[in-house]
Amino acid sequence: MIAITDLPLTFLERPAEPESGCKPWLLVLMHGVGSNERDLMGLAPFVPPQFHVISLRAPFVMGQGAYAWFQFTVSADGTRHISASQEQQARALVQQTVEQAARQLEIPAERVVVGGFSQGGIMSLSLLLTQPQLLRAAMVWHGRLLPEVLPLQAPDAALAGKSLWVSHGTYDNVIPLTSAHAIRDRAKRLPLSLSYQEYPGAHEIRPEELRTSMQWLRDLAR
């Protein structure tokens, strides 16, 4: 496997260990707000071995060891207002990072998956909807769909053959379950394969949720 030498975003990686006859895949992971690249790298031992795992650090500093893909505020009625300029910058950096990592590893777009938790899930979904030619699939753990991204969505036909994993906690008190329903309802109108799951938990990846999503990855890579 070819090593990655440089990317636009800081990252950690776990090289793939392809089984006999299995071609390598690329999984790019993105953490939630206030965390860093070490967070989702903790999931690497559970990721199928044929995936080269890269965990990215978001570009905007919140504090020591704490980063965000974009800043946001929440109104009294629960409405969220994001920094559109930061989101655009972050999405462009993620796009460049995915493209460069796949090129350096010589992994084609049909074997590239992006995934993330919370704000990282938002970024994963946004990249799939706006740049589907770069990916095979996206994983969204406890995320939401940005209204700001909808005007930028690629034509429906460009999403044909893509896959999307969406999971959420029924008691999520950070991003409400209705946000997952909104992703589900929009995805159902698109020509992609949707796997939607709800789990009895809060704003966290539950053990069963992790097991099921990793099985989804294994099935995808068959």
User: Can you list the strand order of the major beta sheet?
Assistant: 1-3-2-8-9-10-11
Give the N-to-C terminal Cα separation.
19 Å
Biggest pleated sheet: 7 strands, mixed
Unreliable stretches, pLDDT < 50, 5 or more residues? none
Task: Give the SSE string.
Answer: EEHEEEEEHEHEEHEH
What is the count of helical runs? 5
Query: What Rg is obtained from the alpha carbons, in whole angstroms?
Result: 16 Å
CATH class value: Alpha Beta
Mean pLDDT metric: 95
Structural class: alpha/beta
Helix content: 25-40%
- CATH architecture, by name, is 3-Layer(aba) Sandwich
Overall outline? globular
What's the domain count? 1
CATH H-level superfamily title: Alpha/Beta hydrolase fold, catalytic domain
Q: How many runs of DSSP E, i.e. beta strands?
A: 11
CATH topology tier name? Rossmann fold
Task: Quote the beta fraction.
Answer: 15-25%
